[in-house]
Automatic annotation (TrEMBL):
Belongs to the SAA family. Residues 1-18 form the signal peptide. One of its GO terms (biological process) is acute-phase response. This is Serum amyloid A protein. Residues 87-121 are annotated as: Disordered. It comes from Cirrhinus molitorella.
Length: 121
């Protein structure tokens, strides 16, 4: 019985350790996904498309795993905090955070896609 319990604990411990090993790589790749969405938003320069790019960046990052999801949340929150200092009103911040959460939770970013946005995005 002790041997079975020891093996079970060992298997659970190894599995847990294997998961955190991937976290930094997922976080790095998730940050790259967020940067790519930001660059695409700047390149597109398309009116009313920012929510789509928020959702897309968060979605792509979260698909990397827990590390990517964490990176998306930290980057999104930091971005909104910095922009909050520059804005006098927070009307757009709530909508941005909604789009961020939508993408991070696996929602289709195309929900926020504006009509006429070029297909390359």
């Amino acid at each position: 019985m002790k041997l079975i319990l020891a093996v079970l604990v060992l298997v659970l411990l190894v599995e847990t350790q294997a998961q955190w090993y991937h976290f930094p790589g997922q976080a790095f790749e998730g940050a790259r996904d967020m940067w790519r969405a930001y660059q695409d938003m700047r390149d597109a320069n398309y009116q009313n498309s920012d929510k789509y790019f928020h959702a897309r960046g968060n979605y792509d990052a979260a698909q990397r795993g827990p590390g990517g999801r964490w990176a998306a949340e930290v980057i999104s929150d930091a971005r909104e905090a910095v922009q909050g200092f520059a804005r006098h009103g927070n009307s757009d911040a709530a909508a941005d955070q909604e789009a961020n959460r939508w993408g991070r939770n696996g929602g289709d970013p195309n929900h926020y896609r504006p009509k006429g946005l070029p297909d390359q995005y």
